[in-house]
Amino acid sequence: MQEQQDTDIIQRVLQGDRNAYALLVDKYSHLVYTLALRMLNNTEDAEEAAQDVFIKAYNALRSYNGNSKFGTWLYTITRNTCISRSRSNRQEVLPQEEDKLARLAGYDESHNQQQEQQTRKKILVHAINMLAANEAEIITLFYIQEQTVDELCKILGLSVSNVKVKLYRARKKLKEILDRHYKTELAEYYNVK
Questions:
Q1: CA 78 – CA 62 distance, rounded (Å)
Q2: Which architecture, in CATH terms, is 98-190?
Q3: SS3 helix, strand, coil % of the chain, rounded to 5?
Q4: Closest Cα to residue 96, out of 71, 130, 128?
Q5: Could you report the per-residue pLDDT of 151-182, keeping only the tens digit for each?
Q6: In CATH, what class is 2-89?
């Protein structure tokens, strides 16, 4: 149903209703900005990149063929825009969605202790930052952005088996980093001796 709504809005835009595009911008602005911020690690650059993404998407709207979700198509444009900016700015890719990072770290919300939560988030962010950029990206896309394997194939331009292998290797490396560098800190929170 959501995809049908997007398709209807896109048709309205293509038929000349420029105001309808604002509906897509409103719907996807958080997604685009969050990804840009995570990849560029700078609010000003992320805002500029988000604006660029929506301009590029508007100009390329006729090329959207509906083979993938509009959000996935837009995500790909965002990713490519940020990679281009990142190369020119030479900035590191850093995940910024702390709530989802906390879930990936295994935060149990029933404990509701801010200090523990903040420490876990920091540990996970540091561990993800120790991964190679492509490994950090696939971990972030799958676990934090909750993209499916099929969507990752479209975003990254890889086959299903290649995505699964890269995801497996990135998870394994992340676990090794956590075990090697943060085992003591994590053991305290999970009461592991």
A1: 17
A2: Orthogonal Bundle (1.10)
A3: 80, 0, 20
A4: 128
A5: 888 888 889 999 999 999 999 998 888 888 77
A6: mainly alpha
